[in-house]
Specification:
about 140 residues, alpha+beta, Alpha-Beta Plaits, 4-stranded antiparallel beta sheet, 7 helices, about 20% strand
Length: about 140
């Protein structure tokens, strides 16, 4: 595998339950290096731009409402095979279907309130990273 970067979010549901420390601990234990991280609160418009790929889906409004409902932690993670490794660490989108020991299985409460987000492909990671971080923040 080659060294790559992926984008990750600790979502508002996890931050409101004060789970960011637990999630960051799991990120470190899984062998990721955190290249960049910031805490912020998205506006509904910013959430809409980030999730523009889902604009025509029926859940778009609910998704952007949720993602703008509280503080998030946006991160760039680096590791060998980071994209697939982070998706394995998070677990399936639905916590009930996620593997035991994954973040979403252990900490998530629903498909939407599943604590974390992660890029699903190199192209997605490139877009998502650039949406939140300038090149100067990634040095």
């Amino acid at each position: 595998m080659s060294l790559e970067r992926t984008f990750a979010i600790i979502k508002p549901d996890a931050v409101s339950r004060n789970l960011q420390g637990e999630i960051l601990s799991r990120i470190h234990k899984a062998g990721f290096q955190i290249i960049a991280m910031k805490s912020m609160r998205l506006t509904k418009e910013e959430a809409g731009g980030f999730y523009a790929v889902h604009r025509e889906r029926p859940f778009f409004g609910e998704l952007t409402d949720f993602m703008s409902s509280g503080k998030i932690f946006a991160m760039v993670l680096e590791a060998d095979g980071a994209i697939s490794k982070w998706r394995e660490t998070m677990g399936a989108t639905d916590p009930k279907k996620a593997a035991p020991g994954t973040i979403r299985r252990d900490l998530g409460s629903s498909i939407q309130m599943n604590c974390t987000h992660g890029s699903d492909a190199p192209e997605t990671a490139a877009f998502e990273i650039s949406y939140f971080f300038s090149s100067m923040e990634l040095i």
